[in-house]
Design a protein that fits this description.
The structure is a single chain. By secondary structure, the protein is of the alpha+beta class. It has 4 domains: 94 residues, no CATH class; 88 residues; 90 residues, Cytochrome Bc1 Complex, Chain D, domain 2 (Orthogonal Bundle), CATH 1.10.760; 51 residues, SH3 type barrels (Roll). Helices cover 52% and strands 10% of the residues. A 5-stranded antiparallel β-sheet has the order 6-5-4-3-7, with no helix packed on it. The termini are far apart.
Length: 396
């Protein structure tokens, strides 16, 4: 009977997902709440609340069901930490100020696991909580929270924190510096600070990845191009560029290249977006089963990734009503929200009511000219790695 009830609950969760809702949302909430209240199984309670949170993802100021308050009191006293956490997260979405205060305290509580603190921070920022945004400056000093704090500056506009990112740029490690650049390219007001840093050479031109340069061109236009230079389009001289790299990647040169070094190049330039051998990002296609033995195939897709890009991997650019710019590929969409996959974050949820402008580009998310930013040795090592048939140890 326990398992019958469990699968019944999972079915109800599936109904909650906005794309599948056919009944009034409040009625579905009431069914879920009654089922949670009737269950003594923490696994069932957690699964149902996880489904509710998924259905409410990206939404703010949701009116709570009438019976939620009394159920929350019960769940908040559960012996199971997962139940308490999910219940608090739902109450937060429902605008419960006590739940918001608890989340703020959790963010600062160093006795909690860092993942729990990161989750609390993410939920607060996605709710556009200003108090959480004000905590970002001090969270940058904590190694386990630094990257989340840097990226959080993109979610809620915070001019003080954005200036601090530039002031502390040289103190951050390479991963953190990359997060700083990507964050400063997320809003026009931040991008102007970054442009001034480029002008004064506080930040080097080479620190701007190709896809970020594309975003900055969209945000700032000519002033950015005047400083950075034109973001080159390769389509018109594709044949010439391909011939250049085909000549570089001759059999003798590839024979002396290192796949182990190439894996390190891949991790730095490709792994954020592509899966290979079961690891990596999911923004672009999984490369494991692709035609990697074919040198022409690799070079064409590296030199001109927008040559023949499937619709599923076209760039979706969103500008929110509060000025945040997000570029990614569409992962999910329903009547209330869209979910984008970006090189920086695997899942960015944006409520449709928060979207001021949305456009689809014919271009791939993969930037052009990546090979031009590498040394000839790095190109050869990368190609050698991409043509492997099994994973190799990485040369650090």
């Amino acid at each position: 009977m326990k398992w019958v009830r469990f699968f019944f609950c999972i079915g109800i969760v599936a109904m909650l997902r906005p794309a599948r809702v056919s009944a009034d949302e409040q009625q579905i909430f009431q069914v879920l709440i009654r089922t949670i209240r009737a269950s003594d199984d923490p696994a069932v309670q957690v699964s149902l609340m996880k489904g509710m949170l998924s259905g409410l993802e990206g939404r703010r100021d949701v009116v709570p069901p009438e019976s939620w308050g009394s159920l929350y009191e019960k769940l908040s006293r559960s012996d199971d930490a997962r139940v308490r956490e999910r219940a608090a997260a739902l109450s937060q979405v429902f605008g419960d100020q006590a739940a918001v205060e608890k989340a703020l305290n959790d963010v600062l509580d160093r006795s909690l696991p860092v993942d729990a603190r990161r989750d609390a921070l993410g939920r607060l920022l996605n709710q556009q909580n200003r108090e959480a945004s004000e905590l970002l400056v001090q969270l940058m000093d904590e190694p386990g929270m630094t990257v989340d704090a840097i990226r959080g500056v993109a979610i809620v506009e915070n001019k003080k924190a954005s200036q601090l990112l530039l002031d502390r740029y040289s103190d951050f490690n390479s991963q953190q510096q990359r997060a700083v650049i990507e964050t400063l390219a997320s809003r026009k007001v931040y991008a102007e600070l970054l442009l001034n840093a480029l002008k004064s050479q506080r930040i080097e031109r080479g620190a701007i990845p190709a896809q970020v340069a594309r975003s900055l061109t969209d945000l700032l236009g000519e002033p950015f191009i005047d400083v950075f230079g034109e973001v080159r389009e390769v389509a018109q001289d594709r044949t010439k560029v391909l011939a250049k790299y085909k000549a570089l990647c001759n059999p003798d040169a590839l024979a002396t290249a290192s796949a182990a070094r190439g894996r390190a190049v891949y991790e730095k330039t490709c792994a954020a977006c592509h899966m290979l051998y079961g690891a990596g990002g999911k923004v672009g296609p999984d490369l494991t089963g692709s035609n990697r033995a074919n040198l022409d195939y690799i070079l064409l897709n590296s030199v001109d990734p927008s040559y023949d890009v499937p619709d599923a991997y076209r760039t979706v650019s969103v500008l929110t009503v509060d000025g945040r710019s997000v570029n990614g590929v569409l992962a999910e969409e329903d009547a209330r929200r869209i979910v984008l996959k970006t090189p920086e974050q695997p899942r960015v949820v944006i409520a449709k009511e928060d979207i001021e402008q949305r456009k689809i580009s014919p271009k791939s998310m993969m930037p052009e000219g990546q090979l031009d930013q590498m040394t000839p040795e790095e190109v050869l090592d990368l190609i050698k790695y991409l043509r492997t048939t099994q994973q190799v140890e990485m040369d650090q």
